[in-house]
Amino acid sequence: MSDQVRIIEMGPRDGLQNEKTAVSVEARIAFIEALVAAGLNTVEVGAFVSPKAIPQMASSEAVLRGVSHLTGAEFHVLVPNEKGYDAARAAGAKVVSVFAAASEGFSRANINCTVAESIERFRPVLARANADGVKVRGYISCVLGCPFDGEIKPKAVADLATTLWELGCYEISLGDTIGVGTPAKAKEMLRAVSANIPPAKLAMHFHDTYGQALANLYAGMEEGVRVIDAAAGGLGGCPYAPGATGNVATEDVVYMLEGMGVRTGVDMDRLLGATNEMSAVLGKPPVSRVASALNAKKRRARS
Ligand code: HMG
Ligand code: MG
């Protein structure tokens, strides 16, 4: 359990996409700079989706261009189709993520097509990315439950993961979009998926709606998965997943991992600074338990 874990920081994308307050391009860039300075060198910074669907992610091209000076970091952006891919490439994207769902209900709500149609939209994106030397990450949403279709069978997740893997995705990120999973279910799902894909090529993307994300991550680590998606401060959620709250908080993940002797390369104090700055922009305190505890400790030390 003590080998290194890679954290993919989701705050600027998954985090901000669900916030009511519109965050300026400048504040999004400052947030990403602060996260990179904290040691989070892989950050999802935006989404090339319809601005009518997700206005919070409008101007993602300006954000991506605005962080291009941070040469030591890797930036990811979502693309749902070739139109998104064109825009992402024009802004200099080197890693893009396609996103499918394990359920028809969520696929329809989120990207307005069936699961099979979404694969047909991704096929040319992957072919072009391969020719352009661009890496493609593949997401699957609702791997542990769907707000529309309910229970999801591990086999449905495994089959879709295999399809994305065979299309050429370098890593498959498994999303518990509405945070309903529990450790035994997470293990069962990960075992089914890793029958066809090495666990080293999987990522866990767990939202913390029911407070189970850390337990589920620990269970997934026991299955050999070593990539974790997390959002600073526990920001966000998906506008198309009713009731879903944010990703597991990066602070909570870092605290757990460092406590287990797993190196993350993240400076907690700087991460807390990045979270607190965004929290001031949004006008609300972070939901992360660790961030709240550390902020309270700082206040006590000052008084
Ligand atoms: P559609 O209506 O089926 O697409 O939307 P369309 O091709 O018929 O086009 C409709 C309009 O969208 C047109 O504009 C297109 O130009 C435009 P109009 O003529 O009406 O002015 N359009 C685009 N604009 C910008 N960028 C594009 C693009 N494509 C078409 N790439 C579409 C399909 C996917 C575009 C739409 O449904 C959409 O943008 N959905 C947003 C999905 C989204 O961003 N969801 C949140 C992220 S996913 C997530 O959070 C889950 C995840 O975190 C993992 C987890 O937690 O499980 C990843
Ligand atoms: Mg998500």
Tell me about this structure.
The protein has helices at residues 11-15, 25-37, 60-66, 82-90, 104-111, 115-132, 154-167, 183-193, 213-222, 250-259, 268-282, 289-302, and strands at residues 6-9, 42-47, 74-78, 95-101, 135-141, 171-176, 202-206, 227-230. α2 runs antiparallel to α11. It is 44% helix and 15% strand. The chain is built from 12 helices and 8 strands. The radius of gyration is 18 Å and the shape is globular. It has a single domain, classed as Alpha-Beta Barrel (TIM Barrel), CATH 3.20.20. Strands 1-8-7-6-5-4-3-2 form an 8-stranded parallel sheet. It is an alpha/beta fold and 303 residues long. The structure holds 3-hydroxy-3-methylglutaryl-coenzyme A and magnesium ion. Magnesium ion binds next to loops.
